[in-house]
Amino acid sequence: MSKFYKLLTLLLGIFILSQCAANAAITLPTVNVGFSEANTPREFTQGLQVLIMLTILTLAPSIVIMTTAFVRIVIVLALTRQAIGTPSLPPNQVIISLGLILTFFVMSPTLTKINETAYQPYVNNQITQQQAMDNALVPIRTFMLKQTKENELALFVRMAKLENPKTPQDVPTYVLIPSFILSELKTAFKIGFIIFLPFLVIDIVVASILVSMGMIFLPPTTIAMPFKLIMFVLVDGWYLVVKSLIEGFAV
User: Fold this and answer.
1) How crowded is residue 225: how many other Cβ atoms within 10 Å of its Cβ?
2) 20 to 30 A from 32, CA-CA: which of 50, 61, 102, 164?
3) Residue 86 three-state SS
């Protein structure tokens, strides 16, 4: 029996070595990135455009986070988890994944407009690259202007030392983006405060009962957590939170 295992091991080793030798004979393509001398201004411009595009791709996650509904959604979901009293459930991966899915759902009309007015015409050689970028910026600006509060917008217009814009289209993008982010943070914490109120009432009631019973050394959060979970499940909490988030963007 031991000879059989030795023979099987030997055959397996020969098979693995033969496969490695066969794979070593296969040539794979390589990608080289380097600098070469530009013979014409056009070649220099094309190389500069590639460098700019790579920079934009590097900053793409931050751009997506700061110019979409992601900030408000993730903050509200995280505050909801904190209010329930389970800081590690759902895990961060679930919160972020749910936030991304809801963000794509909320931003789907904006993405559709970008596809129709910028991407498809550019792919079909109907407009230039600069025109495509300008057309893609219009739906994004429309979304951000719809969610930005006047106070935040006026703050950054004043800090930028600009004249009061006559129309929303006159607001520069570099002023609109921080105004939008500040408005989203403000709205998200308002929603989080409303979500915290019923759970805070449960904590106060449980703490009062424990103190009246003389059980001052028993943590109220340990006793209150099951009641929070029961209440959240009975009222279908995640449904209400997601519904209020999506309807807030539809207003």
Assistant:
1) 18
2) 61
3) coil
Helix axes 220-234, 237-250, angle to 10 degrees: 60
Question: Which sign does the torsion angle of CA 161, 163, 165, 171 carry?
Answer: negative
Predicted TM-score (pTM) of the model is 0.70
State the pLDDT confidence band at 251, using cuts at 50, 70 and 90. Answer: low
Of the candidates 137, 182, 176, which has an alpha carbon nearest to the alpha carbon of residue 160? 176
Q: How many C-beta atoms surround the C-beta of residue 151 within 10 A? A: 11
What are the boundaries of each domain within the chain? 59-194+237-250
Say whether pLDDT at 4 is over 50: no
Q: CA 102, 104, 177 angle in degrees (round to 5)?
A: 100
Cβ atoms of residues 110 and 69 within 8 Å: no
Least confident of 48-62, 118-132, 181-195, 224-238: 48-62
Q: Which residues contact 80 (CB under 8 A, 6 or more apart)?
A: 192, 195, 237, 238, 241
Going by C-alpha positions, the residue among 79, 63, 53, 52 that lies closest to residue 144 is 63
Question: Whole-angstrom Cα distance, residue 78 to residue 69?
Answer: 15
